[in-house]
Amino acid sequence: MTLKRVVVTGLGALTPIGNTVEEFWNGLSNGVSGCDFITRFDATNFKTRFACEVKNFEVTDFIPRQDARKMDLFTQFGVVIADQAIADSGLSDENINKEKVGVIWGSGIGGLKTFEDEMIGFAQGNGTPRFNPFFIPKMIADSVSGQISIKHGFRGPNYVTVSACSSANNAIIDAFNYIRLGRIVACISGGSEATVAQAGVGGFNALKALSERNDDPKTASRPYDRDRDGFVLGEGGGAIVLEEYEHAKARGAKIYCELIGGGFSSDAYHITAPHPEGYGAYLSMKDALEDAQIAPEEVDYINTHGTSTPLGDPQEIKAIEQLFGDHAYKVSISSTKSMTGHLLGGAGAVESVAGILALEHQMVPPTINLDNIDEVIDPRIDLTPNVAKAKKLNVVLSNCFGFGGHNATLIFRKI
């Protein structure tokens, strides 16, 4: 069968460097760090006392209080982000059959803060079982897609993918496939996460995964730098409206770009560590290129997973060198996690929006805090250090890799 073309017609973003798409891009293009000391709880006794939090967010500005109290923060984020993307797309009762619109979201952990609060309350209650009646609906990861669907009346496929830090990319690829197979005409997809909580920071500290640069938080997320010491926890998320090309064209929608390929793979190696030769990353990118039916030489910019961890960063570069050959030294590369921190299950959505905006503005966002490139990385690799770069962009590739060896890659093309 002939697959239908899939385009992006709406964007939404709520991030540590901006609460709208415009603010997010301003932060990216100007190399702004979203990191600061934690305000969501007293982190004095934690090994890491900083994170990339969403700032100046008051949920009741967007969602009535009686509804918001039934949602964990990650769901509140998701509903607000989806609202932005839907408004941007111009989808309405007049131009869409809502039975043919899906909501496919990604979240790696879901309602962690809700779970934490309920367990603390239970313990402090001397074992008396008093639980919030909304405990389970707030905690479960699929509540976010359900809330978006209920609010807008979308009756197509509705679920949340959970594959750690690849969750949002997985969701977007699923949405892409439903549309190009002709099952639906549009889908709201993306991801959100809200794990800046005692359990989140404490858990990742126990894994020795987080940076502990407490003396200078704004420089803590430093992908590819020889002095990196772990990732910085972020929160928020992003959304894109995917739509069948002819449907979008017929209603006169603004089209940002085309989604042309998605790739998956598994490291099949270790529950938390990446494959030492980056083999899973290589396979995921290779699968996406084959799906898009393009050559490696056609890729102009790679938004890497680039978490700022000693193990992960060089392995991804190894995979790029293996797959792209000499073009690995011509393609622009950057990690926007240097500015947003790592949004876990929401990372792929925020980074998809970043890549789409890079196409829109013909500019590569920088990798900030990159002062001394790790000696194991070939100096010919263009990591876009510290300053955004104007460049003619036609094709953008975006990687996400997660605990468990889950890998997912997206490819967008200017239209």
TrEMBL record:
Job of this protein: Involved in the type II fatty acid elongation cycle. Catalyzes the elongation of a wide range of acyl-ACP by the addition of two carbons from malonyl-ACP to an acyl acceptor. Can efficiently catalyze the conversion of palmitoleoyl-ACP (cis-hexadec-9-enoyl-ACP) to cis-vaccenoyl-ACP (cis-octadec-11-enoyl-ACP), an essential step in the thermal regulation of fatty acid composition.
Catalysed conversion reaction: a fatty acyl-[ACP] + malonyl-[ACP] + H(+) = a 3-oxoacyl-[ACP] + holo-[ACP] + CO2; (9Z)-hexadecenoyl-[ACP] + malonyl-[ACP] + H(+) = 3-oxo-(11Z)-octadecenoyl-[ACP] + holo-[ACP] + CO2
PANTHER family for the chain: 3-OXOACYL-[ACYL-CARRIER-PROTEIN] SYNTHASE, MITOCHONDRIAL (PTHR11712:SF336), POLYKETIDE SYNTHASE-RELATED (PTHR11712)
Biological or metabolic pathway of the protein: Lipid metabolism; fatty acid biosynthesis
GO CC entries: cytosol
Listed name of the protein: 3-oxoacyl-[acyl-carrier-protein] synthase 2
Active site: 165
Gene3D superfamilies found in the cross-reference section: 3.40.47.10
One Pfam family it belongs to: Ketoacyl-synt_C
Matches recorded under InterPro entries: 3-oxoacyl-ACP_synth-2, Beta-ketoacyl_synthase, Ketoacyl_synth_AS, Ketoacyl_synth_C, Ketoacyl_synth_N, PKS_Beta-ketoAc_synthase_dom, Thiolase-like
GO molecular function, a single term: 3-oxoacyl-[acyl-carrier-protein] synthase activity
Annotated signal peptide: none
Enzyme class, spelled out: transferase
Boundaries of every Ketosynthase family 3 (KS3) domain copy: 3-414
Gene Ontology process terms (BP): fatty acid biosynthetic process
Protein family per UniProt: Belongs to the thiolase-like superfamily. Beta-ketoacyl-ACP synthases family.
Alphabetical keyword list: Acyltransferase, Fatty acid biosynthesis, Fatty acid metabolism, Lipid biosynthesis, Lipid metabolism, Transferase
Enzyme Commission identifier(s): 2.3.1.179
Keyword Cytoplasm among UniProt keywords: no
